[in-house]
Amino acid sequence: MALPRIAVDGRLAQEPELRFSQAGKAVARLRVVASDRRKNDMTGEWEDSDSLWIDVTCFDKLAENVCESVVKGDLILVTGRLKTEEWTDRDTSQKRSKIAMTADSVGASLQFRQIPHGSAQRSGSRPEGLRGQAPVQQAYQGDPQGVQPPF
Questions:
Q1: Contact, 145 vs 109, CB < 8 A?
Q2: Per-residue pLDDT tens for 80-94?
Q3: pTM for this one?
Q4: Half-sphere exposure of 94 toward its Cβ, with a 13 Å CA cutoff?
Q5: Which of 31, 83, 120, 147 could form a disulfide with 13 if both were Cys (CB 3.0 to 4.6 A apart)?
Q6: Contact between residue 7 and residue 77 where contact means Cβ atoms under 8 Å apart
Q7: Integer Cα distance of 120 and 34 in angstroms
Q8: Buried (b) or exposed (e) across 124-134, using 16+ Cβ within 10 A?
Q9: Running DSSP on this structure, what letter comes out for residue 29?
Q10: CA distance 30 to 84
Q11: Strand 95-108 with 46-59, pairing
C-alpha cells in the first residue's frame, strides 16, 4: 500500500536547511507550520487555532531550488508523502515517533510578496526583436497528439 499523498499549506517556520549526502545528493529540511486564523467576533482580534508543525524533506534539484527560492515566513504549498519517523531518545531511551513528509513539489504563494525566478527569457521579458509582438504559443509537450491542456 502506498503512503498517502497530501498537500500542506503553511508558513515556513525557519530558513530552509541545505545539506549534501556523502554521495553528493542535495537534501533540504523545511519546518512548516499550518494553523487556522480566525477573527474573534467579540474582540475583533485575530486568533490562531491549533497549529500543525510538520518537518519536510526535499531531495536533489527540488532541495536546491527550495533553498534558493523561499525564506522564513513565506506561505508555501507542499505536496508529498507522509511517513512515520521513529527513533530512540538519547536521554531517556524512550521510543519516539513523529509524522514527517517527503516533498514531491513545493510552491511559494505570491499573495504577500513577489518571488523572482528563472532567466530573463522565462520571467516574461522578451528579446529585442520580439517586443510588441504576440507571444508564440508552443504545443503542449505532455500529449503526443499536441492537444492543449485546459489551463
A1: no
A2: 999 888 999 999 999
A3: 0.67
A4: 3
A5: 31
A6: yes
A7: 34
A8: eeeeeeeeeee
A9: E
A10: 16
A11: parallel
Burial 102-119, CB ≥16 within 10 A → b, else e? ebeebebeeeeeeeeeee
Q: Which 3-state string (H, E, C) describes 81-126? A: EEEEEEEECCCCCCEEEEEEEEEEEEEECCCCCCCCCCCCCCCCCC
Q: How many CA atoms lie within 13 A of 57 on its CB side?
A: 15
Shortest CA distance to 18 belongs to which of 10, 26, 7? 26
Q: Which domains does the chain have, with CATH numbers?
A: 5-111 (2.40.50.140)
CB-count burial class (<10 Å; 0-12, 13-18, 19+) for 80:
buried
- CB of 98 closer than 8 Å to CB of 85: yes
Say which amino acid occupies 52.
Answer: L
Could you tell me how many residues make up the chain? 151
- Residues with Cβ within 8 Å of 99's Cβ and at least 6 positions away in sequence, in order, are 54, 82, 83, 84, 85
Question: What's the rounded Cα separation, in Å, for the pair 115 and 76?
Answer: 12
Please give the Cα distance from 84 to 17 (Å, whole number): 21
